[in-house]
Amino acid sequence: MAASSQPHVLVARRIFPQVVERLRECFEVDDNPTDTILERSQLVERLQGKAGAFITASERIDAALLDACPDLRAVCNMAVGFNNIDVQACSARGVMATNTPGVLTETTADLGFALLMAAARRITEGERYLRQGRWTRWTYDMFIAPDVHGSTLGILGMGRIGQAIARRGALGFGMKVIYHNRTRLAPDLEAPLAARWVEKTTLLRECDHLVLVLPYSDQTHHAIGAAELALMKPAATLTNIGRGGLVDEDALAAALQAGRLAAAGLDVFEGEPHINPKLMALPNAALTPHIGSASLRTRRAMADLAAANLIAALCGQRPPSLLNPEVFGLHSR
Ligand code: GLV
Is the whole-model pTM more than 0.90? Predict the structure, then answer.
């Protein structure tokens, strides 16, 4: 096929060069090797004449953008979360939207459990203390903390990643697992973990370590705020690896400051990469820069899946992880 007849696509952020090369075999690619963050107007401009977009969670695709980019037929997210894409608006305009589920489950669960451990056992707080040269002698109650093993693990959002965290807690750390989710797991998934579905208020009251893994949307905005935090045990911890907007950060900071919650482990933030200064100032908050899926193998698998979605979408095949299957097969708008 002559290069000029190939569909044009935008790769909005710097990604693996091998993945860009793979896309070049099928498309005219406009990529972003300098990783300039495209302002909205720049994104719209770069999307003119483009049939597809390879995007990440930092690009927002909504109705206004779609209207301004009438050639778009597919937007392919290199992330499992897709709150940056208005899928309904895509469907209304015949645009396929895809994400990258499955390939990042275990890696993200590893990070979630690591953050839970860091928060509960005060690891980042202890490290800071040591690096500041403040450790002069051992004392029996230095950095005393709640146990993780044998405690109650609470999971809000029991999809693939929630279940992977439950496995780590139940099978690796002998934790009792309770969870809340819109739908209950099938008995054959619950049984090996002895996981118990509970109401959200019971979850908050009973857990020692709460992990948030639910998708972010208008319905889950500030799923954890002052009222929810007030139900939790003061010795409990909260870990968020979903999206920052799941938590009211001011309320969380106030609870951590006042000792109404022992610690938090946060990989995601409402205004990231800007971090709420109140959280920054708290020693009992373990903070990481949205690295849940950041193993080399997993990031490559995510990029490969996003590329496979884009290639399929623009070559007449059903993308492996299509979010709006009703759109498949519509080639023009
Ligand atoms: C990361 O946050 C993702 O949604 O993949």
Answer: yes
